Structures are given as C-alpha cells and as structure tokens.
Amino acid sequence: MGKKRLFLINGPNLNMLGKREPDTYGKKSLDDVVTLVEQAAADFGYEVTSFQSNHEGDLVDWIQRAEEEAEGIIINPAAYTHTSIALRDAISAISKPVVEIHISNVHERESFRHISMLASVCSGQVVGFGIDGYRLAALGMIQKIESEGRNHS
Ligand code: DQA
C-alpha cells in the first residue's frame, strides 16, 4: 500500500498569497503554506498533494478525486466558501473528511464572509490563525483519521 495522502486544496486568489492584501493575509506565499503542511503531515507519515485553482469546477474535480486518492482534504475555498453550492455538494458526495480553513478571521470581517456554504458538511473549521491555521487543520485532520481508524479495527 502507498503512503497515506492528504489533499491540500486552495481556491481563488490564493495563488497571490504574500502579495495580495498582506495586512489581511500576511506576507507568506502559497509555497510557504504547502511546505508548512508537508512538514506537519510528514511527522505522521502522510504525504501531501497540493492543488490551487481560480476555477470552481476544477475545485469540484479535485474534491471528487480525493475519494479515491486521499485520506482527507484540507481546503481553503476562499471566496467560494460564501457562494458555492457546487463545492458543498462535492464534499457531501465523498466519504472522506474535509477541514475548512481560513487565514483571516472571517467573522470579524464583512457580513457576507460570516456565511459558509461548506462548514456544515465539513468535519471541522479553522479560522483566524493566519497561515499557521493550515498546520492546525492538518493536525486536526490526521488526529481524526487516525482515531477513526482505531475505532474501526
Ligand atoms: C479567505 C477568506 C475569504 O472570505 C476570502 O474570500 C479569501 C480568503 C481566508 O483564507 O481568510 O479569499 O478564505
């Protein structure tokens, strides 16, 4: 059997991390985020496949792929969080756990960011800890996968 794998999925405009609104999202890049998650996951024997897209349908495709290819998904759906029933339905369609992460504290921002179409079909949500939230999401996800594996054996 191959190594256990997590998908790290980032939505629109997160390719511009580090350059985009640094007061809100910080100065670190998406590559820095990927490294952070890879390191956290490696401590537990997990590998990470990272994907970023500005296109909703591509994100749907990758959520669906996780059913066959990953143990779970860490996703920052970015603006699609607040609008996308397609992403929500994709998460509902798979059996693998999904953790939603936001770099900023969406709850102290505009009211349209307070709504998540996805949160109620995710296993958990990490909000407002900057890019360190991705590491926290990875740890929470791995803990969940490992504890469920034990319960089933
Ligand atoms: C974000 C918050 C969203 O409201 C926003 O559209 C983003 C980034 C975050 O990580 O804080 O693009 O998901």
UniProtKB/TrEMBL annotation:
Signal sequence, start to end:
none
Enumerate the residues marked as the site Transition state stabilizer.
20
Active site, UniProt feature? 25, 102
Keywords (A to Z) from UniProt: Amino-acid biosynthesis, Aromatic amino acid biosynthesis, Lyase
Q: Look up keyword Amino-acid biosynthesis and say if it applies.
A: yes
Q: Which Gene3D superfamilies match?
A: Dehydroquinase, class II
Which parts of the sequence bind substrate?
A: 76, 82, 89, 103-104, 113
Catalytic activity reads: 3-dehydroquinate = 3-dehydroshikimate + H2O
Q: Which GO terms describe its biological process?
A: amino acid biosynthetic process; aromatic amino acid family biosynthetic process; chorismate biosynthetic process; quinate catabolic process
Extract the NCBIfam families matched here: aroQ (TIGR01088), PRK05395.1-2 (NF003805), PRK05395.1-3 (NF003806), PRK05395.1-4 (NF003807)
Summary of subunit composition and partner proteins: Homododecamer.
HAMAP family for the chain: AroQ
What PANTHER family does its record include? CATABOLIC 3-DEHYDROQUINASE (PTHR21272:SF3)
State the protein's name: 3-dehydroquinate dehydratase
- Name of encoding gene: aroQ
